[in-house]
Inverse folding.
């Protein structure tokens, strides 16, 4: 990954919604490394982006040239099952209003961050961007996936009617330091890391994992994702969606074994087959990102996991002390 200053960013005001979040914090830091001086992050306690008047006020106050929309209500399978209405409404309203007011104000570019959850449940592997409309998403996260998918429809419609520059990126499951480890909202990697570390520290004999371990996932290190987003914002202008991934696929069963080894948890694993597996397989075709704006992931999966576990254990040790 390159962190050299880019003249593209030095004179542009950039708003990063969700810039205090997991992915957002890396995007903000990398923008500054590349020379961006005016990087602005709207705080939720001041701008509730679900509300039209708050969106209007944010644009009036911050006057961005470019918007990178990362803010989202997200969570793992459990959170998606418990809060489907919230996940649909909040994500839809934020995105729709941010994009519409951006068009009204004539900003230079709007970068929409979608989700791999937008793909149909039984998409042919590897997932190609042209397959996005070949079926309904996996049921447990369909409301979230469809809400985010509407940003693609809206951006393409605005491109067609108004010539507005809006791009749409589809990152696969992300992981890395500063991820969310709260079991109520965490995704699979932080959830498993916490389970294994807690079980090791408490001398427990086993951990419980949802499903049967047969489903597969692709994971992208968060710093790689930030690099891909910034490259796309700088170099890509087409309305066609673009996958961001690592092209590495692993089963949940294999993932559990790797995390057990790296966290030094010696106990067993009990699979709770009464709980869902989620989408059967996830692996992206990442060729479009490389062809269109030169993005290719650089952090290997085991290395990324080590960094994530080291960060979590250092945070845990600090909290205890």
């Amino acid at each position: 990954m390159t962190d050299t200053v880019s003249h593209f960013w030095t004179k542009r005001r950039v708003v990063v919604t969700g810039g205090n979040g997991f992915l957002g914090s890396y995007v903000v830091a990398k923008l500054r490394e590349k020379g961006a001086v005016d990087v602005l992050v709207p705080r939720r306690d001041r701008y509730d982006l679900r509300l039209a008047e708050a969106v209007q006020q944010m644009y009036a106050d911050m006057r961005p040239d470019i918007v990178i929309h990362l803010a989202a209500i997200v969570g793992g399978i459990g959170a998606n099952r418990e809060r489907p209405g919230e996940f649909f409404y909040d994500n839809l309203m934020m995105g729709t209003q941010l994009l519409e007011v951006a068009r009204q104000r004539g900003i230079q570019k709007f970068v929409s961050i979608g989700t791999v959850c937008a793909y149909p449940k039984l998409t042919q592997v590897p997932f190609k961007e042209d397959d996005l409309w070949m079926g309904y998403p996996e049921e447990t996260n369909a409301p979230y996936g469809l809400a985010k998918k509407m940003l693609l429809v809206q951006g393409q419609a605005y491109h067609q009617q108004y010539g507005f520059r809006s791009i749409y990126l589809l990152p696969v499951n992300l992981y890395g330091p500063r991820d969310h480890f709260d079991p109520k909202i965490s995704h699979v990697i932080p959830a498993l890391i916490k389970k294994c570390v807690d079980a090791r520290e408490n001398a427990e004999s086993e951990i419980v994992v949802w499903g049967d371990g047969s489903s597969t996932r692709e994971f992208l290190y968060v710093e790689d994702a930030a690099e891909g987003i910034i490259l796309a914002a700088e170099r890509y202008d087409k309305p066609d969606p673009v996958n961001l991934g690592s092209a590495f696929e692993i089963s949940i069963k294999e993932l559990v074994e790797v995390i057990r080894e790296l966290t030094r948890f010696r106990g067993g694993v009990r699979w709770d087959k009464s709980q869902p597996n989620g989408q059967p397989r996830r692996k992206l075709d990442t060729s479009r990102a490389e062809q269109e704006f030169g993005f290719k992931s650089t952090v290997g999966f085991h290395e990324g996991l080590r960094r994530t576990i080291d960060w979590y254990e250092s945070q845990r040790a600090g909290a205890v002390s």
